[in-house]
Amino acid sequence: MIELRTPAEIEQMRPAGRFVAETLATLKDETKVGTNLLDIDRRAHDMIRAAGAESCYIDYHPSFGAMPFGKVICTSINDAVLHGLPFDYNLRDGDLVTLDFAVSVDGWVADSAVSFVVGTPRDEDLRLIDTTERALEAAIGAAVVGNRIGDISAAIASVAHADGYSINTDFGGHGVGRTMHGDPHVPNNGRAGRGYPLKPGLVLALEPWLLQTTDELYTDADGWTLRAADGSRGAHSEHTIAITEDGPIILTDRSHL
Ligand code: MG
Prior knowledge:
Blueprint: H1 7-30, H2 37-51, E1 54-55, E2 74-77, E3 80-82, E4 96-105, E5 108-117, H3 123-141, H4 149-162, E6 173-175, E7 182-186, E8 203-206, E9 209-211, E10 217-219, E11 226-228, E12 234-236, E13 239-244, E14 247-250
Antiparallel strand pairs: 1-4, 2-4, 3-11, 4-5, 6-7, 6-8, 8-13, 9-12, 10-11, 13-14
Helix pairs in contact: 3-4
The structure holds magnesium ion.
Magnesium ion binds at residues 100, 102, 111, 113, 205, 238.
């Protein structure tokens, strides 16, 4: 069921968005060559506790998950792109890191992800991240009243395809509200003009993710982490946005931080 939020409810969702934005900005800043993934999770856990927020991940146990996630942040490194389960690993020079973070504050969820390189970057990694970020910008630009879900999907796909990346549509964007994953599903590829019409009050997590040279994933032995079938690297950009009469509001915006 697709739920629409009143302007007052969208205001109530702002603290969750702000907390997710600030936490991701801080964690990105603190993550360096040598940082251990378990320390990123611990730090995120401390920040959640200090803010009185609630993790959406720790007890998360969908049909495709082998066991409850057990951590509060996804850390996907290099060939891992989604659902990266933090483990005992110290980041190395040139590692491509994705942090994906969702919490609930005052009963409202926000969900956001960022990719970056620690240490000396490879050109092809920066290019992949840049395309993913521009795909997200295009998706947000298409998230306006009068458009449909397919317009967001097509906007993402056109940026990715123009840069020569193929798209896997197994995982994509989703409605966000009291829980992390609601309707509608927002595929990262689709036909413009098709699908559910975008209405004021629709709150969505938009999340293009790309792999360098494949669109196939496999699940790591940890039961969670999704990796590129050919070992190439992945990047992921995600924001939670609210569609309004005045255009999209990026609830998890970090650009001012
Ligand atoms: Mg997310």
